[in-house]
Design brief:
With 97 residues, this protein is α+β, with helices and mostly antiparallel strands. The protein has one domain. The chain is 41% helix and 18% strand. It is built from 4 helices and 2 strands. Strands 1-2 form a two-stranded antiparallel ribbon. It is elongated, with a radius of gyration of 17 Å. The chain starts with a helix and ends with a strand.
Length: 97
């Protein structure tokens, strides 16, 4: 985890498979896992945020920052949905019979 992430309230990052294990251990059935962010969001974009003290995402957005944001939006669509450190898990409570 990068320094600026703790400043915005992030508590921890999970190792690959760790969150799924915790969910399953506590009675959930994992239906789908999506990892996202490689290579353009993480590490590249997050490294830039670390270097700038995460100032790139705060403050007022004039025309140039809006243009850069729009370009990043489309670049981020090129990220892999099978690799990255952004983790989305769809799980449901296990029904015991």
């Amino acid at each position: 985890m990068r320094r600026f992430e703790t400043e915005v309230g992030h508590v921890r990052n999970y190792a690959p498979g760790e969150l799924v294990q915790k969910l399953e251990h506590n009675g959930f059935v994992v239906e789908h896992v999506l990892e996202w962010g490689f290579p353009f969001y993480s590490p590249l974009y997050r490294d830039v945020l670390e270097l700038t003290g995460s100032k790139g995402t705060t403050g007022e957005f004039g025309p140039m920052r809006k243009l850069i944001s729009r370009l990043l939006y489309y670049v981020f669509m090129l990220n892999s949905s099978k690799r990255g450190d952004e983790l989305f898990v769809l799980a449901k409570v296990s029904v015991l019979q």
